[in-house]
Amino acid sequence: MSNIKKRLLKEKIAKVAMQLSGITITGSLFFIIGTILYKGLPYLSWEMISQSPQGGFYIGKEGGILNAILGSLYLATCSTMLATLIGIPISIFLNIYVKSGTFLERSCKLLFDVLFGIPSIVYGAIAFSIMVWVGIRASLLGGIITITLLTIPIVVRTIDELLKTIPVDLKHVTFSLGATRWELAKIFLKYIKPGIFTAILLAFGRAIGDVAGVLLTTGFSDNLPKYIDEPAATLPLAIFFQLSSPIPEVQGRAYASALVLTFIILIIVICTHLLASKQQKHKI
Amino acid sequence: MNASIPHIQIKDLNVTIEGKRILKNINLSIPNNSITSLIGPSGCGKTTLLKTLNRLVDDTKGVEITGSVLVNGEDIYAKDAEVTHIRKKMGLLSQKPFPLPMSIFDNVAYGPRIHGEKNKQVLAQIVETQLRNVGLWHEVKDRLEASATRLSIGQQQRLCLARGLAVKPEIILGDESTSALDPVSTQTIENLLIELKQDYTIVLVTHILRQARRVSDYIIFVYDGEIIEFGKTDDVLLNPQHEITQQYVKGFIS
Predict the structure, then answer these.
(1) How many Å apart are CA B88 and CA B160, to the nearest integer?
(2) Residue B2 pLDDT
(3) Which residues of A touch B163 (CB under 8 A)?
(4) What separation in angstroms does the CA of A44 have from each of A32, A68, A178, B20?
(5) Which of B87, B101, B102 lies at the smallest CB-CB distance from A175?
(6) Kind and range of the H or E element at A137?
(7) Confidence of residue A58 (pLDDT cuts 50, 70, 90)
(8) Angstrom distances, CA of residue A266 to CA of A41, A81, A262, A263, A273
(9) Is the residue at B135 inside a domain?
(10) How confident is the model at residue A26, as a pLDDT?
(11) Tell me, what's the ipTM?
(12) Residue range B190-215, pLDDT digits in tens
C-alpha cells in the first residue's frame, strides 16, 4: 500500500472512532433523558413541585418534593458561593504569590489533585465524625460545610487551569507598568472571568448532585427547610428514597424528581453560558 | 537629571537559570537618550539581559543573580530595592501586543490609576496625550470605550506603547517589539521609537539586523552570555572587530 493510502486509511479510522464515541455519548445522554421523561413526566404535576410531602414520604403518594427542591437549592447555592469565595483566593495565591516550581506550590497542587479525587462519602464520613464529636446533629449547615469542602478542590483546580492559559507576557507587561501582585491578580481575574462561570457551574453541578456527602451530614426531612441547624431534604436523596419504595407510583415520583433535578441543572447551565458569553468582550 | 550619569549601568552581572549560566560577567553602560540594540543568535541571553533591567527575570524558575544593575545610580538588586517602583521607571514593549482585558481608554489610564491618579479630567488628558504621541488618537478617539482587543495588531502595539508611556517611564525596553507586526506597522513603531529617544533611553532586543541598523545608535552583540562587541551601529555592523561578530553580521551564524 502506498504511503498516502496508508495515511488516508489512518485518517478514516480516526474519524470513525471519533464518530463512534460521539454517537455513544450523545446516545446515552438521550437515553437517560428519555428514560426520566418517559417514566417521570406522567407523575410530574404542579402539586409535585409546589408542596411538601404528605402522608409519609416512602409510602405516601400525596404532596410533592418542594422540601427537597428548596433544600438542594439552598445547599448547592451556599456551598458553591463559599467554595468560590475560598477557592479563587487559593488559586490566585498559588499562581501569583508563590513562585512556580517551589516545594510549596507543587505540594499544594498535588494536595488539591488528591482532594479532587476523594469520593464524597469520605468527606461525608469525616464531617459526620467531627459533627458527632462537636455535638452538631445532621443539618443543612453540616451539609453546606461538607459540600463546600467537596467543591473547593473543583474550583481551585479549574481556576488553576484557567490561570495557566494566561500568557506570561500579560504578567510581564502588567508588572512593567508598576503593578503590584494584587493588582496583577485583578487583571488576571478579569481575563479569566468567562471561565470562572465554568468553575462555578462545575462546582454547582457536583454540589447539587451529590448523595453520599449529604447522606450523613444533612439528614432528611419532610418539612420545608427553615432553619440552618435542622435536617433538610435534598433532591438526590429524595430520588434515592422514593426509588427504593416498593410502590410503583412512588417510584414514578422518583423519576419526576430526577426530571426536576435535571431541569434545575439545565437552567443553571444556560444561565452560566449566557453570563459567560456576556463577559467575552475583552478576551484576547 | 544629571545627563552625565548613565541611566543604566551594569556591573559584574551574572545570571544563572537552573544551573546554567545565561549571562557571564556583564559590564555595561547604556548611553542616555539613544537607542541601543541588543543583537545576537537565539538563546544567547539577550532577552534575559533585557529582563534583568526591570527585574522581570526574577519571575523565572530557578534563577540566581549576582552583581548589580544601577538605574540612575541606584542598585535595583539591592536588598531594600522596591521592585514595583523600579518597574514603573521602565516601559516594556513586548514581542506581541498584550492589551489588558479592558477598554482602549482604561488600558492607557491603567498605569496612572494604579499609581494613584483619580481625577477624571487628568486621566482623560493623559490618555489623549499618549494616544496622540503614538499617532493613534485620530483612529480611536470615537471608540475609546471599545475593547482594546478589537484593534488591529499594529494598533494594539501602539496602544501598548502609549500605555507604557502613560506611567512616565525614563527608559523603554523593547523585546523584539515588531516581530509580530506587518511592515507598515513596524515602520510606524520604529519611527515612534526614533522620535521618543529625545526623551527616553531605549534598549531594544532584535534579531533583525536591518532593523538594528535602521533605528539604533549603538549595538551590543551578545554571544553565549557574553558581550562580544559594543559600539556605534555602523562600527559594529560594518566594521566588526571580532571574528564571531563578523560571522554573525554576515549571516554565517544565526
Answers:
(1) 14
(2) 47
(3) 177
(4) 17, 15, 60, 69
(5) B87
(6) none
(7) low
(8) 16, 19, 6, 5, 11
(9) yes
(10) 97
(11) 0.88
(12) 999 999 999 999 999 998 888 999 99
Q: What is the per-residue pLDDT for B128? A: 95
Residue B168 touches partner A, C-beta closer than 8 Å: no
Q: How far is A180 from chain B (nearest CA, A)?
A: 6
CATH fold label, A46-282: MetI-like fold (1.10.3720)
Q: Output the nine-digit C-alpha cell for A63.
A: 404532596
pLDDT at B1 over 50: no
Residues of A with CB below 8 A from B149's CB? 282-284
Q: Touching check for B85 and chain A: CB below 8 Å?
A: yes
For chain A, give every domain's residue range. Answer: 3-43, 46-282
Residues of B in contact with A173 (CB under 8 A): 92, 94, 98, 100, 160, 164
pLDDT at A34 over 70: yes
Q: Nearest CA to CA, how far is B158 from chain A (Å)? A: 14
CA atoms of B129 and A100, how far apart (whole Å) = 39
Q: DSSP letter for B57, please.
A: G
Domain count, chain B: 1
Report chain A residues whose CB lies below 8 A from the CB of B91.
176
**Nearest CB to A282 within list B56, B102, B163:** B102
B101 and A282 within 8 Å at the Cβ level: the answer is yes
Query: Could you give phi then psi for residue A225, rounded to 5 degrees?
Result: -70, 115
B132 within some domain: yes
Residue B120 domain-assigned (yes or no): yes
Provide the chain B residues 142-161 that lie in CB contact (below 8 A) with chain A: 147-149, 160
Grid cell, residue A166, equals 494566561
Within 8 A of A174 by CB-CB distance, chain B residues are 100
A178 to chain B: closest CA residue? B88
Q: What is the pLDDT of residue A245?
A: 86
- This prediction has a pTM of 0.84
In this predicted model, what pLDDT tens digit does every residue of A65-90 receive, in sequence order? 899 999 999 999 999 999 999 999 99
